[in-house]
Every structure is written in structure tokens, then in C-alpha cells.
């Protein structure tokens, strides 16, 4: 039997998945003890909110999939009952609001904890970021003629596209939930775009960046140094 740490703050505050043939066991480790949850499916993937207050656990079984919502309270993690849905992944805003759930052909937005997910007109999402007012989705494509490409789209909460751009190569992006700025990595560095898709800053030579507070990014340089860069929205 093997185990995989899906999330951990300490040995007493962690989520661990254990393989049990065609099924999995999810250990929710807390200071008061560990609760073990048998779940249907394998290959568990955990997607957490930026503040680690909420998470979505996605599992697959054959051609089907299900997900479970988790919330982190004073006594550690608690997990919901399974929800059948053809999902590949999810992204959550700060405090777990909203939650974007996506599969290869279906996308759902769960605005608040007490509301049911509703379908959005978005497909082929490979990665996303969520904020209270916007959603960043990224589609990763490849072709013999053009090679790999990343299509990034900023959506409002109805699924309407605010802006879209295509960059050569496979690159990740991040959405600042406070300012609405988007940081996109590319072969020449990181570009920061405003809510209309206009460049607000360019960070030459950077290989990746992530927002850590309003308007400010942690930037990774090619020589693996980490710096901070703040951008005016």
C-alpha cells in the first residue's frame, strides 16, 4: 500500500491518499486524530484555494469521475459526499469562492457554498484561476504546423470572454483576485495584463510568476532566484 501527500501544513494537518487497488483511502489528519474515508476511484487530484480554506478532490474510475468538496476549519479538514461529474480539475478563489469545475467538454461555476453549480459556455480548459469577478482559463493545444500553444482567456462570471490571446509554447498564468491583473509566462519573460487585456508590465527573462498579495508577484528567474515585483493596476 502506497501513500501520496496531497496537501500538508504539518504532520497533524494534512491530506494523504492511499492506493487500495481499484479504490483509494483518503486520510484527513488532524491534531485530534486521523479520519479515514474510503472513496470510489483512483488517481486523486486535489485543487486548493489560495488561502487553503477550501479544496476540491477529483477522482476517476474507468471512464467516469466524481468530486468532493473539502473545507478547512478549526479542527482540520472535513469532506463532503461524492458528486458524480465528468471533471478533470478545478480552481478556487480565495475563501473558496467561486469554484470553477472543468472537464474536457463541460465547465461549471459554483458561486457560493450553498448554491448548485451552473454550466458555463467554456470548453477545453487545462488550467484556471478564479477571483470574485473573473475567471482565467487556459487551453493547451498542439499541432504539427504550429507546435504547442497556450490560449488564455479572461471570462466574467457568466462565461463571456473579456479578452483572449494565444502564445507559443505551454505556459502557465495566474489571476490576482484583488486587482484583476493577469500574469502570463512566455518564452521571453512574464507579461502582466490588466482586466482589458492590455499590458501593464513586462518582466524580461522571468520564467514564472505568481501573485502573493494585491498587485505583487513572486517572480522566478532563469538562475532560480526569487524576487518580488509589484505592478500598478
Task: Explain what the structure shows.
The chain is an all-beta fold. 0% of the residues lie in helices and 61% in strands. Strand 7 and strand 8 form a beta hairpin. It is globular.
Offer a quick outline of the entry:
With 233 residues, the protein is mainly beta. The chain is built from no helices and 24 strands.
The DSSP helix count reads 0
Question: CA-to-CA gap between the ends?
Answer: 50 Å
Give the helix proportion (percent range): under 10%
Order of helices and strands: EEEEEEEEEEEEEEEEEEEEEEEE
Q: Give the overall form.
A: globular
Mean pLDDT: 90
Poorly predicted segments:
none
The Rg value, from CA coordinates, equals 18 Å
How are the SSEs placed, and which strands pair?
Blueprint: E1 3-10, E2 13-20, E3 23-30, E4 33-40, E5 42-48, E6 54-61, E7 64-73, E8 76-79, E9 83-84, E10 89-92, E11 99-102, E12 107-110, E13 118-119, E14 127-130, E15 135-143, E16 147-155, E17 161-168, E18 173-175, E19 182-186, E20 189-193, E21 199-204, E22 208-213, E23 216-220, E24 226-230
Antiparallel strand pairs: 1-2, 2-3, 3-4, 5-6, 6-7, 7-8, 7-9, 10-11, 11-12, 12-13, 14-15, 15-16, 16-17, 18-19, 19-20, 20-21, 22-23, 23-24
Amino acid at each position: 500500500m502506497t501513500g501520496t501527500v496531497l496537501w500538508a501544513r504539518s504532520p497533524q494537518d494534512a491530506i494523504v491518499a492511499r492506493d487500495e487497488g481499484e479504490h483509494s483511502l483518503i486520510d484527513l489528519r488532524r491534531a485530534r486524530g486521523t479520519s479515514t474515508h474510503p472513496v470510489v476511484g483512483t488517481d486523486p487530484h486535489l485543487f486548493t484555494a489560495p488561502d487553503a480554506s477550501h479544496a476540491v478532490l477529483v477522482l476517476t474510475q474507468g471512464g467516469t469521475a466524481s468530486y468532493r468538496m473539502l473545507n478547512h476549519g478549526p479542527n482540520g479538514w472535513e469532506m463532503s459526499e461524492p458528486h458524480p461529474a465528468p471533471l478533470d480539475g478545478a480552481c478556487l478563489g480565495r475563501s473558496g469562492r467561486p469554484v470553477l469545475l472543468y472537464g474536457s467538454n463541460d465547465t461549471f461555476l459554483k458561486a457560493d457554498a450553498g448554491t448548485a453549480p451552473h454550466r458555463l459556455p467554456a470548453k477545453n480548459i487545462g488550467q484556471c484561476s478564479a477571483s470574485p469577478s473573473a475567471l482565467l482559463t487556459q487551453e493547451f493545444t498542439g499541432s504539427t504546423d504550429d507546435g504547442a500553444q497556450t490560449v488564455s482567456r479572461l471570462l466574467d462570471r457568466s462565461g463571456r470572454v473579456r479578452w483572449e490571446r494565444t502564445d507559443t509554447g505551454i505556459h502557465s498564468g495566474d489571476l490576482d483576485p484583488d486587482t484583476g491583473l493577469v500574469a502570463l509566462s512566455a518564452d521571453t519573460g512574464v507579461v502582466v495584463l490588466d482586466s482589458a487585456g492590455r499590458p501593464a508590465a513586462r518582466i524580461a527573462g522571468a520564467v514564472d510568476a505568481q501573485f502573493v498579495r494585491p498587485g505583487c508577484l513572486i517572480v522566478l528567474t532563469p538562475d532560480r532566484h526569487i524576487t518580488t515585483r509589484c505592478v500598478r493596476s
